Amino acid sequence: MRDGHGPVRLLAPPLRAIVDRLTFNAAITETGRDLDARSRLRYMKITVRSAVGSDLPSLLALYSELNPDDAPLTQESADAIWASISSQRGRTVLVAEADGVVVGTADCMVLPNLTRGGRSILFVENVVVTDSCQRQGIGKQLMEAAMRLGESAGCYKVQLLAADDEYVHLFYESCGFKPLAQGFRRYIDQDQRSGVLV
């Protein structure tokens, strides 16, 4: 329920349940036999597009998978933050849909630059694919879309930071990224443990 003051509570069924139902129907239609949830994804149409305001509940659900320890936002806060994000020049939040259901996202920001002949940099943050849809090429499609965004904006590189996780590093390397630099961060809120936030 949403009352405008409390935490956002999604009225829709959990994302995983929706994806499982859609993938089951798609696999039965295509093959005439039952397949496990991950195998069913192979028969679904995956599209990557720019997010719109109606995607906000799906984005919040994905972000809760990415950072499960985060406190939920109020609807008012979420709406205000989305308004700020969607009005930023050079900012594109990509979403990946599996048969019309948002199952992944990547937040892309073009940063103007006074070096490299004035060519911009595309930064990518908050990349997440819902757990039941991982290892199906959806994340790779999101990263390919981010590369196309960077190319169309005249960027000379696409850059991101990744969690200290070998699986995540292997994923980005499979997308053509190279570990060419050492990333550093310092959290503003020193009360937060640096190992919790990514």
UniProtKB/TrEMBL annotation:
Ranges for domain N-acetyltransferase: 46-198
GO molecular function, one term: N-acetyltransferase activity
Residue intervals passing through the bilayer: none
InterPro entries xrefs: Acyl_CoA_acyltransferase, GNAT_dom, GNPNAT1-like
Protein name: N-acetyltransferase domain-containing protein
